[in-house]
Amino acid sequence: MNEIVISTVLCNILVGCFCLLVLSWAATAINMVICERRDDKRKEAADLRDKEYHEKRMEAYK
């Protein structure tokens, strides 16, 4: 009987550790997606500013 209890406790600990691992992996993935979208928006805005700056410089050059 004692072996069954120890085995059950160890199995529960293993399942708990696996759940924590999966949850941390999911949180990391969500964070990466959010940061990636934010960086893409910043890059698009910077590209637009660079394009406008270039066009103004070319007009001033003429």
SSE topology sketch:
Layout: H1 2-61
Keywords: Membrane, Transmembrane, Transmembrane helix
Q: Roughly how many Å apart are the termini?
A: 92 Å
Mean pLDDT: 94
Helix fraction by DSSP (H/I, runs of at least 4): over 70%
**From the alpha-carbon coordinates, what is the Rg to the nearest angstrom?**
27 Å
Structural class, from secondary structure content? mainly alpha
Beta-strand content: under 5%
Please give the count of helices.
Answer: 1
Order of SSEs: H
Q: List how many beta strands DSSP finds.
A: 0
Overall 3D form: rod-shaped
| Largest sheet, strands/sense/barrel | none
Poorly predicted sequence stretches spanning 5 or more consecutive residues: none
Structure, explained:
The chain is an all-alpha fold and 62 residues long. It has a domain of 39 residues. Helix content is 97%, strand content 0%. Keywords: Membrane, Transmembrane, Transmembrane helix.
